[in-house]
Amino acid sequence: MARDTTDQTPVTSVADLTAYIAAGSKPEERFRIGTEHEKFAFFKADNSPVPYFGDASIQALLDGMAAKSGWEPIIDEGNIIGLAEHSGNGAISLEPGGQFELSGAPLENLHQTCKESNQHLAVLREVAEPLGIRFLGIGGSPKWTLDETPQMPKSRYGIMSRYMPKVGTQGLDMMYRTCTIQVNLDFSSEEDMRRKMQVSLKLQPLATALFASSPFTDGKPNGLLSWRGDIWRDTDNQRSGLLPAAFRPDFGFIDYVEWALDVPMYFVVRDGHYHDCTHVTFRQFMNGALKGEIADWQPNMGDWTNHLSTLFPDVRLKRFLEMRGADGGPWRRICALPAFWVGLLYDGEALSAAEELTRDWTFEEVGALRDAVPAQALNAKFRAGNLYDIAREAVSISRGGLKRRNRLNGDGIDESQFLAPLDEVLAKKATLAEDLLSLYNGRWNGSVDPVFAEYQY
């Protein structure tokens, strides 16, 4: 999230909070696609991480991007920590370890999504090249230790860094050493939200498997295919993972709100300054828990919006749904991830088929699959078969949905072309992580350094 929200509208009831999320409902013709992707910045001379400060730095990259794009700098305690497009259509933000993120504009089709990513990366390369900086597109930092990874001067990350070791063993790795590709998708009603939430939550382990690309840690294989997926198994389980309530047939906006109310907060922002609130839940905040600690202690809608952005379930509900399961990856996968989910969720026939595929999957089964996928990816067992069998069917359903959408580019080609990277995974029966391990054990002669040259943006 590039900029934390400021909205002074008072919060007076749980109904206010529920109505805020419900207001995201929109007619199908206004559905949009918002894609986010992160990448690791490194110096091409020695594959070392890029610090925040200095002549060749993350700060310099942001200043250069501001000059090129004309986007508005986002300042936190005097430091530039992101950029925002003036009309609100897109932003550049920093993850805690300097991972550079584009939060794309809400676009009508996947052709526009790919064009947006291409243009962003082209401008970024233009700014980065004179600084000797390149970018790596995989899901986990392959070489740098946690101590070697730089820390960004972003106030919310200071609070999170102090809190994470109290609630899990891998929270700092999540913050500083992972990258993702995500897509944000719309819903038309509470029922539509429920259907999409339930299908996508059940299929999120499949996305983790298909996009697995984090087999290295500290310069060697880590025994996993999606280290990032494993990290999320013990980051902060109060605010992440699966949502039991979402498996119920009557799941609705209020159920998500009631869950969110009892998750500890990270912060509130007052007069541009961040106050650590990790000792209270939002429900306690509403009941006056911060009275006497901060001057303006009453909750407002900006506090609620910010709190929603600090929750990390596999599918996150705001005024849209965020698909959060995939590792980061090369450029073609920036297009493939939204294509997979748009095909499944934005076509009625495909959504019904995906519902039928997953209808009787239980919370316990999906949890077991989520636990197995980081090490086994598509080889993870599911009932009488394995996840590879589910993947073939899900990608086929998605392809049908994209073809029926019939959104064509100038050459008359529909959006299903963007599933090609997933077709390759299925044809080879091997994930990108397995390809990387084969290279490590073969042509790379037991070194992770070649990944920086061969998988850079």
From TrEMBL:
Species for this entry: Ensifer oleiphilus
InterPro entries per the UniProt record, alphabetical: GCL_bact_plant, GCS2, Gln_synth/guanido_kin_cat_dom, Glut_cys_lig_pln_type
Signal sequence bounds: none
GO molecular function, a single term: glutamate-cysteine ligase activity
GO BP: glutathione biosynthetic process
EC number annotated for this UniProt entry: 6.3.2.2
Record-linked NCBIfam families: glu_cys_lig_pln
Subunit structure: Homodimer or monomer when oxidized or reduced, respectively.
Family under the similarity heading: Belongs to the carboxylate-amine ligase family. Glutamate--cysteine ligase type 2 subfamily.
Pathway recorded for this protein: Sulfur metabolism; glutathione biosynthesis; glutathione from L-cysteine and L-glutamate: step 1/2
Known catalytic reactions: L-cysteine + L-glutamate + ATP = gamma-L-glutamyl-L-cysteine + ADP + phosphate + H(+)
SS bond list: 114-335
PANTHER family: GLUTAMATE--CYSTEINE LIGASE, CHLOROPLASTIC
Keywords tagged on the record: ATP-binding, Disulfide bond, Glutathione biosynthesis, Ligase, Nucleotide-binding, Transit peptide
Protein name: Glutamate--cysteine ligase
Biological role stated in the UniProt entry: Catalyzes the synthesis of gamma-glutamylcysteine (gamma-GC).
